[in-house]
Write a structure and sequence with these properties.
about 1350 residues; mainly alpha; two-stranded antiparallel sheet; about 0% strand; extended
Length: about 1350
């Protein structure tokens, strides 16, 4: 513990050792607690706490600079330098440094002497050597950090000698003393350094080149005092042939010392600067770095070379950069990037990215150096593939000229790859490969071109806001041209045709360019919004690319498409352009912009797959014309073909076909277009969407072909490291699953009856198996064995092919299932758009059961991540966008009857579900339909009701008043939910839950009013329904929505019914034998307390006499089970209810307490004797000294022998009248406390108002009262008024008035609602 360590300097033993007298220990107690706490906070690990404590300590000492606190602070801080906790030592060192800096009158030599005396290295024990060494080191560092050490010559010399002595303990301190000495000497003046240098630096060159600290000290002296150094050592050439191996060893030692810190040693950067200063950088880099450190095959040395490369970038010229960035260091760095891919392997690439980013950011005014560095890192390739990622964030620091030059270099390398200019390498595994096709130039060119095309796209993606529009257009045109077009003859009108290929562009590279182009198109379409300041003429980028493609198609003599267009496909292209011109006339409509985007996107896909996109383009144009030209008054005159589907249905089919393509851009365009046409959606069009989502029909649907671009994704993912990692993980999981499947199928093949019969036939034919009659065992000849082996080999080869075929078929089915599920996830976008943008559309109601079907099926089989994504998205749409939508359908028309049947069906399905999670979705769907029915207009419902009445089928009257404005059939839904509620209360494993019905009650309180009698009925039912009913009733009665549906008399009657039921339950309180019965008792008491709170808030009056008697009667049985499990909660609830009834919980009798004397006589009331005014302390002492309790008139009240001692009185009630404590917790006849009803065991509870009215003047003034009868003894009815009288209150008149106001205003009590006759009797009894 830190407290022990901080308290160590206060121990007598240590005080004696340090030379202080034992009396000092007692003198330390004079210091304040605040002052001592500073030293605890200084050692805490939080930096803010340490700094705040140090600052407070300095402020405290500034007020007492000459006191004993300063001596104690110095002693405490010096002692803290050597504590056992390593994290606390720097804290004390920093605090000591700030103390010395603030109080310059403190002599440094004295402080240093105290440190050396406290931690004398010659006398310290071996076990305490390490703390003593660190104490001396941190002491010198504290002197140095104070800023005063370099000014005090004597203290400086002593500190240097101490550091030299500490340097001998390398096992403990390593190189820390040497580093501290360097830091100190780097701050001293030139004259001081000249004086100290002979003592700290050895004149032998071998000693200088023996350690990094000595070499760094030599470099420091060479920089500050070269003349003194020359006299001491002579002329030294560190980069001579003799000294280069020594420099390599020193740098190796420096690399090993920073292995854990992962930073560049200062000595390496100093040598680099010295080489640049002496114009010997090429020799240093070639011989020391590349041929020295890099050849050691020592990874810390390699990392030092990488860090030296990154740190040297800002210091080198363009020619020196070419030397560094084309050498062995950067090639070795590329090998490290390619091989360091395991999760636990150290990866230097992020650190190198920081170095390059810092360099590019620091030389914005030198685009040539920026371009040279970026081109050099892009030229480090592994068999043609650059090791730099395609999405490299350092390009954001490029200046515009450097960015233009880099894009031009990428395009030139794509067209004419210069493999000789690359720093190419092969890993050890690649070198061992015998496949000659891996080392051909064509493969390297393909890998390089594929990386370049995605690099261009990533530049636009990361710099889309900063890039010039002309440069973005150049990249987009480049990708489009080389993805879909081929140059036949160069022309000046098309600059892309003037760029020949040194290597032919193969089909795989064109596929990569096509994939990269659509990724670029997605970036341009989504991130670059269609604004006038971003694109020329305010048109989207897709429009300009289509215009460029049309220009290329018109120059058929110079350019041709990769897939030639037929006449029909060219006509489709021209019609698309014509439709685009027609859409410009409707540019003000938002729908026209969505249609334009869809048309442009499908038009560009015509270049990729003309045969598939041609018919699709024609259908889209027809739908667009019908959508924009459709008017209501024309539809009556035009003859419509009944066989032709509406344009909305056709367009929905087109959108589904586009969603079948795994393109994120297609997905976004489909969402946008569907958002504009969903207002005109037809039931048939919605059914097309639901057919895809329906699990029963979607398994066999063939009208939508789901395509897969896994090859393209793998092609693109090969360049992106993150996607590459995901692909590797997925491929590993696929291989594992294939391995498991192969094992299962091999086991299946072992028991295959057909294969077994064939095997037996072959063995019998080869006479390997003898028959029953053959007794002679003859060995087969060599030829027979060879023939048998050949037959068996062919048989097993056929079986292996069959197993492989079954495995391939199974994998194919799984892949098709995954593609289908992915397609369904994309189709859910359309459903989300519909429920979000058209929540008032009646077609939304048709989505409930299909979505529930998906949820039910996915909850049963949501094993894979794809299934879970499908389930989560469906549940999110169903719950958040549909059931919780603020807007919903208000015009049902003739759907009301069907919706009522659907509500009944959903509630029944919710009760039949296997778990509560699935049931919750069905129950919420029914609540949504209830809200729709309740908020919809009732014209259609009234019309249906009148028709049924005319036909004589519906005898119910037509609703009038508020019910006439709603389609909700309250009687029907009441019957439905009452059945569900009864099932929930009686069924043992019901999927329905309490929160479901609470949601129903809060949303539809009128329905709750009709269902509450069922709950009240089950309060006294069997054990489980009773518990559920009590819990649900407790929650329901606290809802404000439910209370607003009841009139005051109805609410009071309901409270009385519930109270009667709870009272009946409490008759068996304390007799619980099982856990269920115990839970039932708890729920009953919780419901009772909830009733008390409700009545208190509503200021209701209820008859609690019977309840009080029941509770008092069960107290004995409750005390007998006081030690049972879970009885604590039961007792708390019981006494909470009794406290509300005015009965305080008795205190438990302590062990050894005196027994209360028993007395059988009744208390005798007498007038209190007039006394003078005494101090309050005197009154308290007198009452505490009395053995018995006092009545209100001062007469002691005797209690029974079996009764517990009376409860103590609180301080706030000491001025009130005393009341006798009753046995067994029965209420005392005293003035009621605020908020608690006053009850008597033989009378009904009374309110404070009635008691005030019934009091006589003589009673108020202290007239004697009749004695209180024992509990449980009934009194005659005629004596009732006399028993309800409250005695004299010791309060003054203003205090009594204030008490009455507090009782009435803030704490309404639970009162009896007796007959008027009883109230009249009370009034008569109160009269004199």
């Amino acid at each position: 513990m830190g407290s022990r360590e901080l308290a160590e300097p206060l121990s007598p033993g240590e005080a004696t050792q340090s030379g202080a007298r034992p009396a000092d220990r007692h003198g330390l107690l004079k210091h304040s607690r605040e002052f001592l706490d500073f030293f605890w906070d200084i050692a805490k690990p939080e930096q803010e706490t340490r700094l705040a404590a140090t600052e407070k300590l300095l402020e405290y000492l500034r007020g007492r600079p000459k006191g004993s606190e300063m001596k104690y602070a110095l002693k405490r801080l010096i002692t803290g330098l050597g504590v056992a906790r390593e994290t606390a030592r720097p804290c004390y060192s920093l605090a000591l440094a700030q103390l010395l800096q603030s109080f310059e009158d403190l002599p440094l030599c004295s402080i240093l002497q105290q440190i050396q005396e406290k931690y004398d290295l010659c006398e310290v024990k071996k076990t305490m050597l390490r703390p003593a060494l660190f104490a001396n080191l941190f002491g010198v560092l504290a002197l140095f950090q104070s800023g005063r050490l370099v000014k005090d010559q004597e203290a400086l010399m002593k500190s240097v000698k101490l550091l030299q002595a500490l340097a001998q303990y390398q096992n403990h301190l390593q190189e820390q003393p040497g580093k501290a000495l360097l830091d100190v000497l780097s701050e001293v003046s030139v004259a001081t350094l000249q004086e100290i240098l002979p003592e700290v630096l050895k004149a032998d060159l071998n000693a200088i080149l023996s350690s990094p600290e000595q070499l760094e000290l030599f470099l420091l002296a060479q920089q500050k005092v070269p003349s003194k150094l020359k006299k001491l050592v002579g002329s030294v050439n560190l980069f001579s042939d003799e000294n280069v191996p020594r420099l390599v060893n020193v740098l190796k030692m420096a690399a090993a010392s920073v292995k854990k810190d992962r930073k560049l040693p200062a000595i390496a950067l100093d040598l680099l600067r010295l080489a640049l200063k002496e114009d010997k950088f090429p020799r240093f880099w070639k011989e020391v770095v590349e041929q020295g450190l890099l050849k050691m095959q020592f990874w810390p040395a390699s990392y030092l070379c990488f860090r030296l490369l990154g740190a040297a970038l800002p210091l080198l010229t363009k020619e020196q950069l070419q030397l560094v960035l084309r050498g062995d260091v950067i090639r070795h760095y590329g090998e490290h990037v390619c091989t360091a891919k395991l999760p636990k392997q150290f990866k230097f690439a992020p650190e190198m990215e920081d170095y390059v980013g810092t360099f590019l950011e620091g030389c914005q005014d030198d685009p040539e150096r920026q371009l040279a560095v970026l081109v050099a890192f892009s030229s480090v390739t592994n068999q043609g593939l650059p090791v730099a990622p395609t999405f490299w964030r350092v390009v954001r620091f490029l200046s515009p000229p450097a960015l233009r030059g880099y894009v031009a270099w990428l395009q030139d390398m794509f067209l004419q790859p210069d493999l000789d200019s690359l720093v190419d390498f092969s890993t050890n595994n690649q070198k061992k490969a015998q496949d000659a096709s891996l080392h051909v130039p064509e493969r390297a060119v393909f890998r390089l071109r594929k990386w370049i095309i995605f690099r261009l796209v990533s530049i636009v993606d990361s710099l889309h806001l900063e890039m010039e529009e002309a440069l973005t257009a150049q990249v987009a045109r480049f990708c489009l041209f080389h993805a879909f077009f081929v140059t036949k003859k160069p022309t000046s009108q098309i600059p892309e045709t003037k760029q020949p290929f040194s290597f032919p562009l193969e089909s795989q590279a064109r596929e990569a360019a096509s994939s990269a182009f659509f990724s670029l198109l997605q970036t341009l379409s989504t991130q670059l919004k269609q604004a006038t300041d971003q694109t020329r003429g305010g048109q989207p980028w897709t429009y300009h690319l289509v215009q460029f493609a049309d220009l290329l198609l018109n120059h058929s003599h110079n350019v041709t498409t990769v897939t030639p267009f037929s006449a029909q496909q060219r006509q489709a292209w021209d019609r698309m352009l014509q439709t685009l011109k027609e859409l410009e006339a409707h540019s003000s409509e938002a729908r026209a912009a969505a249609f334009q985007h869809l048309l442009l996107l499908v038009g560009i896909h015509l270049l990729k797959s003309p045969a598939e996109s041609c018919d699709l383009l024609g259908d889209i144009q027809t739908c667009i014309r019908k959508s924009l030209g459709e008017k209501p008054h024309r539809s009556r005159t035009k003859a419509i073909d009944p066989q032709e589907p509406p344009w909305v249905e056709v367009l929905v089919e087109i959108l589904l076909a586009l969603l079948a393509q795994p393109s994120h851009l297609m997905r976004q365009v489909a969402r946008s277009v569907f958002g504009h046409i969903c207002s005109q959606l037809t039931p048939r069009a919605l059914q097309l969407i639901l057919d895809v989502l329906n699990p029963e029909t979607s398994e066999d649907e063939d009208h939508v072909v789901v395509t897969d671009d896994s090859d393209e994704r793998r092609l693109k993912g090969a360049e992106d490291k993150s996607e590459d990692g995901e692909d590797n993980r997925s491929s590993e999981s696929e291989e594992e699953s294939e391995g498991e499947e192969s094992e299962e199928e091999e086991r299946d093949g072992d028991v295959d009856q057909g294969f077994r019969e064939q095997l037996m036939t072959v063995l019998q034919a080869g006479k390997a198996l003898g028959g029953e009659d053959s007794e002679d065992e003859e060995e087969l000849g060599d030829e027979a064995m060879m023939a048998l082996d050949q037959s068996l080999a062919s048989l097993f080869a056929e079986q292996k092919l069959r197993v492989q075929a079954r495995r391939d078929e199974k994998n194919k089915l799984q892949k098709e299932k995954a593609l289908r599920r992915d397609f369904q996830i994309r189709v859910l976008d359309l459903v989300e758009v519909l429920v979000t943008k058209q929540p008032e559309n009646a077609l939304v109601l048709e989505l409930l059961e299909p979505l529930l079907s998906i949820i039910r099926r996915s909850l049963r089989s949501s094993s894979s991540k794809q299934e879970q994504d499908f389930l989560h998205k469906t549940a999110r749409i169903f719950t958040h966008h549909l059931c919780r939508a603020r807007r919903y359908c208000h015009d049902l028309g003739e759907r009301a009857e069907a919706l009522h049947a659907q509500v009944e069906r959903l509630v029944q399905q919710a009760g039949r579900q296997p778990d509560s999670a699935t049931a919750l979705y069905h129950f919420n769907a029914s609540l949504y339909l209830l809200r729709v029915l309740k908020g919809s207009t009732a014209e259609g419902c009234m019309r249906e009701t009148r028709e049924k009445q005319k036909a004589g089928t519906d005898p119910s009257p037509v609703p009038t008043g508020p019910q006439a404005a709603s389609c909700l059939d309250l009687n029907l839904v009441t019957r439905v939910y009452s059945s569900a509620l009864s099932s929930f209360l009686t069924k043992r494993n019901s999927p329905l839950t309490v929160p479901m019905f609470l949601s129903l009650f809060s949303r539809h309180p009128v329905l709750c009013k009709r269902l509450l009698p069922i709950l009240v009925q089950h309060v006294t039912g069997p054990v489980r329904p009773r518990h559920q009913a009590c819990l649900l009733l407790q929650k329901a009665l606290s809802l404000r929505e439910v209370r607003s549906c009841f009139e005051d008399p109805e609410w009071k009657q309901l409270m009385g019914q519930v109270l009667a039921k709870v009272t009946e339950n409490l008759r068996v309180l304390g007799e619980a034998q099982t856990k269920a019965e115990h839970q039932q008792a708890l729920s009953s008491l919780e419901l009772l307390n909830a009733l008390f709170r409700t009545c208190k808030q509503e200021k209701l009056t209820l008859d609690l006499t019977v309840l009080l008697g029941v509770l008092q009667g069960q107290q004995q049985s409750l005390q007998q089970g006081a030690h049972s499990t879970g009885s604590s909660r039961l007792h708390d609830l019981y006494w909470q209810a009794m406290k509300t009834l005015g009965v305080q919980r008795p205190k438990l009798e302590k062990k050894g307490a005196k027994e209360v004397p028993s007395a059988t006589q009744s208390p005798i009331s007498k007038k209190r004797k007039k006394k003078g005014f005494l101090p309050e302390t005197k009154k308290r002492k007198k009452r505490k000294s009395e053995d018995g309790t006092l009545a209100e008139d001062g007469t002691p009240v005797a209690t029974g022998g079996s009764q517990p001692p009376s409860m103590g009185r609180k301080k706030r009630n000491r001025t009130k009248a005393k009341v006798p404590a009753q046995a067994n917790g029965t209420p005392a006849t005293k003035s009621p406390a605020p908020g608690t009803p006053t009850l008597s065991p033989s009378t009904a509870a009374k309110s404070p108002k009635l008691q005030k009215k019934s009091q006589k003047p003589s009673q108020v003034n202290g007239a004697p009262r009749p004695p209180v009868e024992p509990a449980g003894q009934k009194q005659p009815q005629k004596a009732l008024p006399e028993k309800g009288v409250v005695g004299k209150s010791p309060l003054s008149a203003p205090a009594r008035r204030k008490a009455r106001l507090s009782l009435v205003s803030r704490s309404p009590s639970l009162l009896q609602s007796g007959a008027k006759k009883k109230k009249a009797q009370l009034r008569k009894a109160g009269k004199p």
